[in-house]
Design goal:
2 helices; 49 residues; binds zinc ion; mainly alpha
């Protein structure tokens, strides 16, 4: 398993991927923080006949 010891950016394949992923995560955090949480509770109503 050469990648497990040589890749210091794991679980990302590279520093670039790591920064991109962390950037997206931070963006998602800011977006959620700026919005209401009411949409989290959205139960789909399904009826079977
Ligand atoms: Zn990658």
């Amino acid at each position: 398993m050469p990648w497990s010891t040589e890749n210091k950016y794991r679980p990302f394949c590279s520093e670039r991927c790591k920064l991109i992923d962390l950037g997206q995560w931070a963006t998602e955090r800011y977006r959620v923080a700026g919005e209401s949480i009411r949409d989290e509770i959205e139960i789909p109503v399904t009826r079977e006949n």
